[in-house]
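seq as requested:
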Amino acid sequence: MSTTFGEDSPGIARGDALGRWIGRHPVWALVIAVAVIFFLWLVLAPWPAGFEDIFGKKRLFVNALFNGVTLGGLYFLVATGFTLIFGLMRNVNLAHGSLYLLGAYVGWIVGDHTGSWLLAVAAGFLSAAVTGLLMQVLIFRHMEGQDLRQTLVTIGLSIVLADLMLWGFGGEIYTFDPPPLIYGSTVLPVVEKFPTYRIAVLIAAIVIGIGLWTFLARTRVGMMIRAGVDDRGMLAASGVNVQLVFAITFAIGAGLAGLAGVVGGTALSISPGEDTRYLLASLVVVIVGGMGSVVGASIGALLIGLAEQFGLAYAPTYSIVFTFVIMVVVLAFRPRGIMGRPA
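struct tokens:
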């Protein structure tokens, strides 16, 4: 099998992309590298005398670290859909949390009747995707560029959906049982046992993040989506059905919220109010990470997950404050977000 010298393999292309990113953001690359090395040292190396006076027991610190990273994975799953809809398409969908909860409830019904967790995940994705498609066709298509109207309409829609779900499912707490393959615990350094399912959530978030980034950056459809956001008229003039592209994109973003509902319901629980929690988390993740950036959303989700878990471990009363401190600091020094670009 011959190779043409002028063609780069996908691995080389990804390496070049990483090199370009480091060249554009040398300070952030250095900060990330130092942070990763520091946390690895804290986990793997013996602590010097006096460290427990600062961080408490090593097991408490490492457990908060692992919980924060895996929670960041869950937040990223929810925020990826919000990144597509709000960050990339500039549609202000404040009913995104309702799509999360709707997918969770529908997934629970399917899982309860079939006994299949995978079918529950598929049902959560499809139910939220269909609902999102209807929202895009019936609401957002008629309000392009009208941010205030989109905000007010979707706030009202989220209230209606929340009340309908409360009426249908009551105020009870529902949970999923994960598949046997990822049920139980895994031995990890220091903490000894850690839920296998949480590790699976992190792996799923990484796989979905890489897939979504590749879809947007490397495929023809992804380029059409980005071109439609930048210059819809030019894309339409080239013969592309812009409305169809936007409808599919919105459906994918909504479906990811529903999928995350089943995943989050398995890791934690499903109950009224979770829609508001995950909408707020998605907003903060996108604002911190940068509008329309999948990589930025992953960084933002990781920071928010770590802040929440370390806050719960060391300052439970003020844990929510740390999340907003991160947002304020990022907006003060990087108003477009960590990975945001000029409009």
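The longest helix spans residues 58-88.
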